[in-house]
Model the fold of this input.
Amino acid sequence: MSSYKPFSEKQLKVLTWWCNNSPYKNYDAIICDGAVRSGKTFCMSISFISWAMSRFSNMSFAMCGKTIRSLKRNVIVPLIKCLTELGFTSELKKSENILEVSHKGVVNRFYLFGGKDEMSASLIQGITLGGVFLDEVALMPRSFVEQSLARCSVEGSTFWFNCNPEYPGHWFYREWIKRCKSKNTLYIHFEMRDNPSLSEKMIKRYEGLYSGAFYQRFVRGKWVATTGAVYPFMDKDDVFVPVPDGNFLEYAVSCDYGTVNPASFGLWGKKDKVWYRIKEYYFNSRIEGYQKTDEEHYASLEELIGDKRVREIAVDPSAASFIETIRRHNKYSVIPAKNNVIDGIRKVSTALKNRDIVICDSCRDSMREFSLYRWDEKGGIDSVVKENDHAMDDIRYFVTTILDGGSGFIALAARR
Done:
């Protein structure tokens, strides 16, 4: 274990709460929530395996994430390395999504599940479990979580919950965190400074990445509502810049398509590892007094691009007819954009603050929408006001699909 820093007081509490000499040993469940990068997931996963191996043999358990892929990346891969250093033998059976762990003649099976939507609850039905570990539980549907808990019918079974905060009306916050005492649950709140492996420099870096509600959630670890401006830091004088001189390495386009609602297309150029929004097309049929057809919007798209060689065009995934129009012309590669609004806003916020993307002052409609784009305070859940959001949507499509998506796209039309 020489490659790891000593555990913090809260991490040690997570690691030992179930031990025979612990004052918390009679709890039925544990919840760890709080800031990102606070070390809660790593110590909880080690503790879960250690508890299971000390209490049971030849038993089945469940380890659940938003998806099996994210669970393997965030939990299982670092966990296996640690288990090996601790003297456990582990084997990940990828085709069956089972992690088998053995130590001194004790063998247990840990089934891996993804709880991404309401249909996921059916995946875990029928199995009998000695315990369940739920990573990113606040991102899972309630039906999946409750079905997972219902599988734990073995005497001595426990529930292990881990998450970053969401909005205060979230069902898990109301049903579990606010009622942890009545549910006989140990609740431990983490902050970044509870992770000894984070340096002061790295903590300061994370503190600078977020603002507003995302700062309160991801840095302070609080369950707070999103109110006010979505991008409050975009009201500074220096955030919008002139289009840089010289050539760009590559180009891409993002499109939010509308007929009755406005259509917004952005042309992006990459220079010195930064993507600049250098030019845009914005058509509001209500202001102009008429609607454009798919072909007319496509002609405007070609005019926006000009003679530039565009890498990809990311389009609003609901605009099937416009995607088909672009494909039919067989001139550009087109891809349906990823459209998780809240996750996308978080990624746009980070990209803007890191200066991975920069908005040029030639993009007047984007500048206008940044000043008007607001959280919906009446929604009860994280949502934005569906006004002044069309350039905001196409910028989000660019970040989530081209900037964040890398090269793993399936093009619907080949470039000529």
Remarks:
- The chain has 13 helices and 15 strands.
- The mean pLDDT is 91.
- The longest helix spans residues 68-85.
